[in-house]
Write a structure and sequence with these properties.
Layout (H helix, E strand, L loop, with lengths): L10 H4 L3 E3 L10 E5 L12 H10 L9 E5 L8 H11 L5 E4 L2 H14 L10 E5 L8 H11 L5 E6 L2 E7 L2
Parallel strand pairs: 1-5, 2-3, 3-4, 5-6
Antiparallel strand pairs: 6-7
C-alpha cells in the first residue's frame, strides 16, 4: 500500500454553505378541508336560509386550533358572503381560515411565516434551499423564500449540497 494516500475530505461539510430547510418552518397543527357543497341544495344551489341554518347547527368547536380551508367540490357559484360568513363562525376557533384547497392553506401559512422571518443570519452567505421534504411544503413557499433571500444572500441554490442548482449569484 502506498503511503501517499490522500485523506478523504468532506468538502461539503467544510463549505460555508448554509442550508435553508423550509420544513423547519412548517406550522404544526391540524389541517381541515371544509367542503360547503354538503350545505347546498342538490349540491349546487346556495339557499341562504338553509345555508345559515346549517351553519347555526354546526359544531364549530371541533375546529379549535385548526387551520381550515373552505372550498366547494361542485361547480356551484358561491357568493363571496358565504365564505365570509363561515370565516366569521370559525374566527373564535380556527388559527387561520382561507378560501381554497389545502395547498392554498399551506401557501398562506408559509407566506405568514416567511414574511416575518429574520433573514439576517443569511446576509452575504451562500444559501442552499433544501429541495426534499417529508411535510407538505407548497411550491409557492420555494418562490417566496427565493424572493426574500435574493437581496440578502450572496448566492441562492436549490437542492442538496452535493447536487445543487444555482438560482442566483450576486455580482
Amino acid at each position: 500500500m502506498s503511503e501517499n494516500i490522500e485523506p478523504i475530505v468532506n468538502r461539503v461539510a467544510q463549505s460555508k454553505l448554509i442550508t435553508f430547510d423550509l420544513e423547519d418552518y412548517y406550522p404544526d397543527g391540524k389541517r381541515v378541508l371544509f367542503d360547503i357543497a354538503d350545505w347546498l341544495y342538490e349540491g349546487i344551489i346556495l339557499k341562504e336560509k338553509e345555508f345559515r341554518a346549517s351553519a347555526e347547527a354546526h359544531d364549530w368547536s371541533q375546529y379549535q386550533d385548526s387551520y381550515v380551508a373552505l372550498y366547494c367540490s361542485t361547480d356551484a357559484i358561491i357568493p363571496g358572503w358565504a365564505y365570509m360568513f363561515l370565516a366569521a363562525k370559525l374566527a373564535s376557533y380556527a388559527k387561520l381560515t382561507v378560501q381554497g384547497n389545502l395547498e392554498a392553506l399551506e401557501t398562506s401559512l408559509y407566506q405568514s411565516v416567511l414574511e416575518s422571518l429574520d433573514l439576517s443570519p443569511f446576509k452575504d452567505k451562500p444559501v442552499i434551499v433544501k429541495g426534499c421534504s417529508k411535510k407538505p411544503v407548497p411550491s409557492n413557499a420555494y418562490l417566496l423564500i427565493t424572493q426574500r433571500l435574493q437581496p440578502i444572500a450572496r448566492s441562492v441554490m436549490y437542492g442538496e449540497a452535493c447536487s445543487s442548482v444555482p438560482l442566483f449569484k450576486r455580482k
